[in-house]
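Dear colleague,

Thank you for sharing your sequence with our group. We've completed the structure prediction you requested, and as agreed, I am returning the results in plain text so they can be pasted directly into your records. Please verify that the sequence below matches your submission; if there's any discrepancy, let me know and we will rerun it promptly.
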Amino acid sequence: MSARAATPGSEETGSSRAKLRISYLGLLVVVAVIVWALISGQKPTAVEIPGVLGVQFSGQKPSSTEVQKAQPVQQQRVAALEQQAQASATPAAPSDLNIAGTWAGNDGFEYSFGQFGNQVVFREISTFGVTATGSGVVNGSAVSLTFTALNGSTGRCELTGGGTNTLSGTCANDSAGTQAPITMSR
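Please find the predicted structure tokens below.
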């Protein structure tokens, strides 16, 4: 027999204790994910609680709906970058790479480059549309690019041409503080 007297309405059922444990476990998992993302350099851009919590970090991939909705703005951005490139282009030197055209990246994206003398403009294209745009300069076999992604990330890529059909190097996401190798081929 228990030494504690039960008061009406104070009984805890096994199922309510289990639900409480699951809630605490879920909260612990969410907190762990948030802490890990912050430690790895991602910055929270939105926090939501309605459906019990949602946190969006910079560097997250946009949904297919977000990509599709953003296409008119992305196309306007590319048009503006192309105008700037044409206005500031100098004739390409005979030793400069010609990277105009479509390239397949080892990251699963397709890259479409327009080249205006030594100036380049590019689009990163996913299955759903353009997910990043950028511009840069070709100098011999070196290509220096800056980009802005649909999720707000910005960064730069330093690539080297290996012949006429391969580009390789690194891209740094300045917003997330990360860097990754990339190879493109056509």
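Summary note from our side: Strands lie at 44-48, 54-57, 101-105, 110-116, 119-126, 129-139, 142-149, 154-161, 166-173, 178-185.

Kind regards,
the structure core
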